[in-house]
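Hi team, as promised in this morning's meeting, here are the two structures we talked about. I've kept the exact order from the run log so nobody has to guess. The first one is mostly here for context; it's the second one we should focus on when we meet again. Sequence first, then the predicted structure tokens.
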Amino acid sequence: MARLMSEAGGPRGFAAFLADRANLGAFVRGNDPTVTLTTWLERLRRLNGVPFNYLVPNERMLPNESIRFFNVDFNWLFALIEGACSIGQSSAMDDAIHTLTVPALRAGAGLTATTREEAPDTASGFLLRSQVVAGWPKLEIVAYDAAGAELTDVLRRERVTESILLFAVNGRIARVIIREPAIGLHFGIDIAGGKPLRYVTVPPQAPAGTRPGDQIEGVSVTPAYRDARHRTLRVARLAADLATTLHARQADNAQDGTPLPFTSAEFALQLVEGTQEVIFRNASQKDE
């Protein structure tokens, strides 16, 4: 303040100095926002620090075991940053300096557009409220746009409470896959008792694009139990049934149709239980 008064030529010239935007602009030019300030504003653009009840004003909008998708309103985001940049603005001098410095503050926040037409692709995301969030803290999330391209610019992924996950990316989400962590791969059978089979080799009659390891549609084997009460499997019987079914489907055969040996490798492939996943699609967008 003392430097500004001196630059203005004392109290008498202060009003005239404020009115001369060229001189005032030269005075503030080069006074870039600090790293601390720009970091705080950039985090605010990602909705960090925004009270959760501003995002979800009523608990009934996000009930237990639900997911809600959203698009980030650029006008709301711009107003948020503008409000933060105007803190402490209480005089004509503050107003004059704010007019000149706010572009640098907006740029520091990564928000250079001033209208919806200038805004970049809309950010979007979802809020998931579920026991899955607490039970599987390392859920894998993959989002795609309407063209099928993966949206990799993740703006924010955070557990805002024990059971609520906030996920936001740059771009419009058309499809999102939420799956268990890959470390969940294990050997087993379905809880209903069946064991779907996978292609070891791909026969000519298989659907186009089928690869070894893909599941055979509608084909499974029901395991036999040595002790059904304790779910103790007859492993040798299960291996034989798997081999028989695979060979009958030509899913473990040589090119001339000769059955290939069913070894421990083929047995392991069939017993692999993949991670569970859920796919959500935006019906209003075409997802190729």
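And here is the second protein, the one for discussion:
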Amino acid sequence: MVNLGQARNFVYEHGTLWERALFSYLFDGGSLERLHQCLRVYKNEDNGFGHRFEHDLSFPESNSVALEYLLSTLRRFNVPVGDLLEGTAQWLESCMAEDGTITPPDGLADYPIAPWWREWGGQPAPDSIVGNLAHFGKASSPLLDSTQKWGSSHLTEDDIQQIEWLFMAYHPYDYYTAIKDAPEHDVRLQATYNHLAELAQSMPIEQAYSLFAFVPGPDALLAKMIPDVVEKALDHLEKTQESEGHWRDQHGLAQWYPMVTIGNLYALKQFGRLQV
């Protein structure tokens, strides 16, 4: 049986301030305003976000990696945004190249940075960010227009099918579940769900936590497409809480354990397997 108290202790000992506030909001009836206050610490005067909000990139100035992770977190856990994102679309507009990609800021690699972000130069793809801004009603017309053009050539059915890892399928998922008027929307959204189902059916069980970024609850379309996979994943989560109260990520990166723990608890709660 999952021990919520031990999970709380782990997150409060090892999590960041905003992760502790998120845990409180999701599981203990904590204050939304308190959570927003913690998140605003990472917001810069230009209305972007930085300051190592995403654990693997420490650049303090505004960057797309921090914003992408913030938005995906808010959406995954159904957190109301209030005025948290005011001005953020305009900051992102200032970073967009003519072809719709996001231009990385100078000096990104002058601070501690994971090798994958160093290799990619941050996050150049606008799809998840703009999709999630649109989900919250915060995407501007210039962002929607430029990302639609970018998506026409970068989020095709072939591009979707070439995604190798389940967790990376957030790119088309975040975009096509939010942007209903995108070119070939219905076809590409269905292709996204079909490929998600394929990836989930073949995923190593140690990656089960990744599935619930795409399955927010029992009524989600993917949950109905692969119910046996979802049940197996939930069973795995119930059995793999560590003695200290946390769950591990597949890469053994300790900085991610608090958020993996929060995500797993939330999934169990949404599917009626955790009482809070």
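Starting points for discussion:
The chain has a mean pLDDT of 97.
The CA atoms of residues 13 and 20 lie 9 Å apart.
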